[in-house]
Design brief:
Blueprint lengths: L1 H21 L57 E6 L13 E7 L4 E6 L5 E7 L1 E7 L5 E7 L3 E4 L5 E5 L5 E7 L7 E2 H6 L5 H8 L3 H10 L7
Antiparallel strand pairs: 1-2, 2-9, 3-8, 3-10, 4-7, 4-9, 5-6, 5-8
The protein binds 2-acetamido-2-deoxy-beta-D-glucopyranose (2 copies).
One 2-acetamido-2-deoxy-beta-D-glucopyranose binds next to loops.
GO molecular function: manganese ion binding
Pfam family, one: Cupin_1
Organism: Dipteronia dyeriana
Length: 224
Amino acid sequence: MYLRLLVILVIVFLHGHVSIIMASDPDPIQDFCIPNPKFGSIKTLAHLSILPCKNSSEATTDDFVFSGLKSSGNFTETGLSTIPVNPTVFPGLNTLGMSFVRADLKVGAINPPHFHPRATEITYVVQGSVYSGFVDSSNRVFARVIEQGEVMVFPRGLMHFQMNVGKKPAMVFGSFNSQNPGSQKIPSAIFGSGIDVELLEKAFGLSPKQIGTMRRRFDPKTLK
Ligand SMILES: *[C@@H]1O[C@H](CO)[C@@H](O)[C@H](O)[C@H]1NC(C)=O
Ligand SMILES: *[C@@H]1O[C@H](CO)[C@@H](O)[C@H](O)[C@H]1NC(C)=O
């Protein structure tokens, strides 16, 4: 009787374990896989397409070097610039289960609350002083100013944020344990996605006019 129970428990445990493994980036079964340009490029990140690799004898050193992080990207009106680097722009990363981002923040600028559904992020402050933090699933906040040379980790799927609190521009480098971490900005997901106004009014206790203001502010058509 106990033995049978034990067997069932082991099966349940293994099943859970296997599903966890299946839910992450797969382990590579070859050294690398540079997508063959003949079959197009990896374009849509929400639904990543798996492309055939080019013959490894055709791979070159340049396939494994990315030169697009030497300077910042374009800044938004709120003073944030991000350059996400994943296999869409750096094919050498394909199948390796990693990606990264360079973020620049002007003085006072913020990286609004957002989360990555498929990756934990490690952020390294290359320059500046950045108030950084995340909120766990019991709504406890873990946040403080991290200085140049310090590192903070944002656990997978948890909402996190940053603000340049220094007197000069800040730069952070983030790396992800997924080649396709995904990124969902909370303000845009809520006010810029077209959720029914009545629901938003009830959820936030705001008037239709206030919801309208928020919707215009986070309208994806005007948001840069
Ligand atoms: C890859 O290239 C090598 C050298 O050109 C060739 O011998 C091999 O057949 C190619 N493999 C495939 C699968 O095309
Ligand atoms: C910045 O904007 C310009 C003009 O829209 C564009 O050509 C360029 O590729 C952008 N740079 C980055 C890093 O996105």
